[in-house]
Amino acid sequence: MKIKGLRWWVVGFVALAAVINYIDRQAFGALWPDIAKDLFPDMDADGTKAIYGTISAVFILSYAAGQTIFGKIFDWIGTRIGFALSIGIWSLATMIHAFAKGMLSFSIFRSILGIAEAGNWPGAAKANAEWFPTKERAFAQGIFNSGAAIGGIVAYPIIGLLSAYLSWQAIFVCVGLIGFLWLLPWLYIVKAPPEKHPWLSEEEKKYILSGQKNQDIDQDGNYDEGYNPSTGKLLQHKESWGVILASAAIDPIWWLFIVWIPIYLNEVFGLDVKEIAFSAWVPYVGAMLGAWFGGLLAQNRLSIGWSVNKTRKMVITLGCLIMIPCFFLLKAPESATNAVIVMAVLLFGFQTAIGNVQTLPSDMFSGKIVGTLSGFAGTAAKLAAFGLTALIPIITKGGNYTLAFLVGGALAAIALLAVWLLCPKIEPLKAK
Questions:
Q1: Which stretch of 10-24, 162-176, 366-380 has the lowest confidence by average pLDDT?
Q2: Burial of 282 (0-12, 13-18, 19+ CB in 10 A)
Q3: Which of 94, 236, 274, 388 has its CA 20 to 30 A from that of 414?
Q4: How many Cα atoms are found within 13 Å in the side-chain-facing hemisphere of 175?
Q5: What are the start-end ranges of the H helices in 396-431?
Q6: From the DSSP assignment, how many helices (H) and strands (E) are in the chain?
């Protein structure tokens, strides 16, 4: 049996995993007003925001560690089992949130969730490197990233609807079950990498492998070779640090919004859980469209003959230039509606850029080391996001988010400079 376009099935499953990932993680923020009332009834808004920020920071710190841990795991055991291990653990971790009684227990459960959920991103980068030729990788990454955006879109209405009928504890159990359902078709369809998959046609296999130029530098037809440095040598390349620094600067922008959108809407505009549920999804529509746009734009430019270097830098620059003015517009929104619309435009720019940043490891190195570099970059990104998340309750006391948005604009500029200065030419690298 041969399945036409099997690579698109693979990226579809990876994108669906990202949808589930975001439903699981967003449940906490969406339900926080109810959780705070239940567990901390005598505490004021700044007090519960500090607890929420601490728990969220613990999650992100664990997520940072999980990026490196699972980056190595995916390189060791492969994409198929790596995803099964990651999503199995995080689904169980989501379910046990129902037993949390306070900050300590929530922090422990969020920590387990963070480590396991982190596997989704180095796993996606590795699947992208394995299953797609260079010219399709940005679009494939865009499809995957749109899964995160779609997860953000559907999570809030789902949680809002469930909250009308179920307790917050029961909701965590329900959303945790979804990941276990995903495992069944994943393990059945994704049997092996493209070189050995029995359902992959010879035509598609040749198309995938012949387009992976960075894995066949010597042009001998052996696509398992290519530049595959040790970890030490990998980190001797300034391009590796360009990827790591760009990720560390741009990724906290995403976390600024996915962690704090519900708290911001509640604190600044007085929205309750149900009102948040039916407005907080709007920015993720912009993110979804940006993920598709950034990927398709890169694919179009490569198809007409642009170099990988020119294409990646143009798309990343465009995304950052969309983001920066939006941060200034968010300093004084007239209403919750205006705020979420500006956020949608901002996250459109973010996703336009980030998909191409995330393809840089596979643009420059062999697939055998892509998971490792993506893991390092992810860890740096989440450490930066941890720092920003821990800082937000301090710099937003009294509901003033101006300084937080100025920091976001500065981070976009730093990411742009990292790509231009540390990655002078994005192309397959060779040993020094």
A1: 366-380
A2: buried
A3: 236
A4: 36
A5: 402-422
A6: 17, 0
